[in-house]
Each structure stands twice: as structure tokens, then as C-alpha cells.
Amino acid sequence: MAEKEEEAGVNHVVLLPGPMQGNVNSMMKLAQLLALHHFHVTFLTTDFIHRRLHRFADIQALSQTYPNLELKSISDGLPDDHPRSDNALADLYSFMNSHAKPLIRDILVSQTAAKPKVTCLIGDGFLGGLTADEADEVGIPVIHFRAISASCFWALFCAPNLFESNELPIKGEEDMDRMITTLPGMENILRCRDLPGFYRGTESNLVEPLKSTVFDCHQTLRARGVILNTFEDLDGPLLSQMRLMFPRVFAVGPLHAHLNSGRVFDAKPTPSMSSFWEVDRSCLTWLDSQPLKSVLYVSFGSITTITRERLMEFWYGLVNSKKRFLWVIRPDMVAGEDNNDRVPAEVEEGTKERGFIVGWAPQEEVLEHKAIGGFLTHSGWNSTLESLVAGVPMICWPYFADQQINSRREEFLKSAKAMAMLAHKSVSPGGSSYSSFHDLIQYIKSTGR
Ligand code: UDX
């Protein structure tokens, strides 16, 4: 303890997540874990995200539980009324890369009597070269964090090799079931259709986004290491391959399991400390009155949008299945709809018999609820890990980005229960993620000396 107190105030880590809910959620868990280890932590988001956190997340609980974790923000350069939806990610990304640099630099070099100088930057790999550039300029070591799955990151990283071995490009729809044989650590596991969304489409409309994504992945080679939200029993073979390429690979996941286990730290579960929407906890009361493992939880994450026609298709399927269901329909989920009219009246009415709809759920708690028997998911990486840790079997409806590859990986896993046990083991003392997290802590401390 004395040693920890002595260290407090010496090590100051800045975390810079990509401005999306999934990235903020997972990096916030990391920030909380570091704060519990007496690091001074600055969690740096965009002004837009900062405002949403202050509106919807439990900031009071956050600052009481983690007094050494500070939220700060910078502009993302976009006008306030910009939609910042999935279609706008490219705009956001390029504005961040041009506009944010000097602002980040100012934060990195600022120092006051109360706040020690920054000794390490943990930057979201989504921001590509941005964090590496800034850290290089001011001489602060940078570690990249990857919010996407390790398998997606690796499949993108290896794209040049796949082109070289003529496994790419994909030659149209008829080529989709062909096996990818030369992806190190994942040989003969993926079909073309399972590759990250960037690989899809014809060569002409695919090359530019793929090129820049692969370029960003290669920027991680400039970092001192890479932090992945996964664990050895899940991604061992490809982690071994990555270790041949990167100087340090910290496989510390599932991060929320570290926080919630209470075995590693004396911390209570920490729901909703990074929520972008108002969490509707009434669904937990509804779940309390449902039979054991009887409810299908349906959620497509924070970015996915669907048409009203597709929403209705899902609804007919859910109602006709005669199963109980809890469905998250975000205020902005139905493309082109007025926010206030998001759930069509017939859906609201026809759901009452066996279903429950909310705008945003306390997902981790929902998945841990005894009434939940399955999860219809878009296969976002956080959702996948949260379901896996809770031992809830998944039905996958991958939408874009890493979700195709995440859903394919499920097919190769042991039973939901067995995977949950392995995940919990990994974050317990002596487990692989537990050890990797402690390696990360030691490494960050060494950067402050
Ligand atoms: C996207 C990608 O899909 C994901 O793979 C990538 O890693 C990050 O960017 P998103 O689509 O939002 O993220 O999915 P996901 O990674 O599953 O993150 C959603 C998060 O929102 C989860 O942590 C989930 O617990 C939370 N959530 C979702 C809620 O808290 N309440 C809800 O009602 C729905």
C-alpha cells in the first residue's frame, strides 16, 4: 500500500478513445482499472462525447469512485449539429486527424503542481497515426488500444500478405465461400464472407477505404505496444503471431470482467459510467418477473441503423417466435425517422404480451440476469465479450466492420458456459489476462522513471 501511495502522482496516463460508444466503453474500463492502481488518469474525449457523458453517464459515481480519473475534452472540429452517425465516421476521422493534433499536444505537455507530467499516452488505434505523431513530437511513449477484436485487427493488418498470396481481392458474390488459407494463426477458419467489411465489394469501391484502414493498422507498429481486449484461451494462436510483429502485446481482456470480478480489485460493478444514452433500468424489473433463461435479448449496439422495413421484419420474427424478448431500439436506430416516433405504435402495442422495448439498456446487467436465455446481437466486440463472460449463447446478425469476423469466430468456440469459465479464469489471479494487465502496469510505470 505504501508503495502504491508513493507511486500515486508519479504516473500520469492519458487515454484517448475513438469517439464511439464501444471504444469509449472499453477504454473507460481500462481507465478505471488504471485509476484503481493509483495512476493519475486523464480520459480525453471530444467535446461532443464529453457533453453526452455528462448528460447520461453516472459521472458523479465515476468521480467519487475514481477521484484520480479526470475527464477532459477537445473539439473534433465538426459543427454541433453534425450527425456523427456511422455514415459520418470518415468525416469525423479526418477532422480528428487534422484539427485535433495541436489540442492533444497541449494536453500532453501541460503540467501543474497538482497534476504530474504525462508519462504515457494510450491512444485508440482507430485514430491511426494521430496518437503516434503527437506522442513522437513531445517524446511521450504511446501504446495503442484496439477496441475491435484481435482477429479483425490481425486480418486487416495482414491484408498486404493476403493480396501477395493471391487470396485477395474477393472475386464477387460467387467467391464468398472460399476459405482463406494463409492468414497466420487463423488458417482455414475464415471464408471470404467472414473477412472484415472493408474487404467486401468490388475492387474499385473497396481499395481506398481498405488501404487507409490497413495503413492505420500498420501505424500500431510505431507504438511501444498494443493492448487488446481479449484473452489467451480465446485468441491464443493469433496472439502468438502478433507477438512476432509487435514489441509488446497486452491481451488484458475481457476488461469489464476485471472490474466486475471483485477478485482482482476491491471494486463494485460499475454500470453506466460511460453511457451515451439514457439508461432505462425498468427492463431489469421486467426481467425479474420472467422465468429462468426464457428471454431473448435483442440489441444491435450503438452505431447500427436499420430501415423501418427491416425493423418490422425483426419484429414479426420476434412476435411469431412466441418467445419472450427484450429489445433495444435506440432513439436514432431507425434510419430517417423522427426520434420521438422511433417505435411504431403497432410494434409498441403488439409487443406487450411477451416483449419489452427500451431505448438503451444496462446491457452488462441485462446479460447477467437469470431470465436471459439468448442474445440476438450485431456481434460488436464489446457485446460479444459481455455475452461470452455471462455465458449467454448468441445468435449473430453481423452488420459491418469487425462484426462478420466476430460472428464467424463464435462458431468455433466451446459452449457458452465453458467459454464463460475460461474468461473468468483469465482475469483471476494467475490467469493470462491478469498477468498481462500487471505486465502493462509495470511497463507504464517504467515509462515514468
Ligand atoms: C462498434 C463495433 O461494432 C465494435 O465491434 C467495435 O469494437 C467498437 O465499435 P458497437 O457497434 O456499438 O461498436 O458495438 P459494441 O462493441 O458491442 O458496443 C456496444 C456497447 O454499448 C457495449 O458495451 C454494450 O454493453 C453497450 N450497450 C449497448 C448498452 O450499454 N446498452 C444498450 O442498450 C446497447
UniProtKB/TrEMBL annotation:
Q: Which InterPro entries match?
A: UDP_glucos_trans (IPR002213), UDP_glycos_trans_CS (IPR035595)
Q: Which domain of life is it from?
A: Eukaryota
Instruction: Print the keywords alphabetically.
Output: Glycosyltransferase, Transferase
Q: Which Pfam families match?
A: UDPGT
Entry GO MF terms: quercetin 3-O-glucosyltransferase activity; quercetin 7-O-glucosyltransferase activity
Q: What is its EC number?
A: 2.4.1.-
* Homology family: Belongs to the UDP-glycosyltransferase family.
Q: What is this protein called?
A: Glycosyltransferase
Species of origin reads Phaseolus coccineus (Scarlet runner bean)
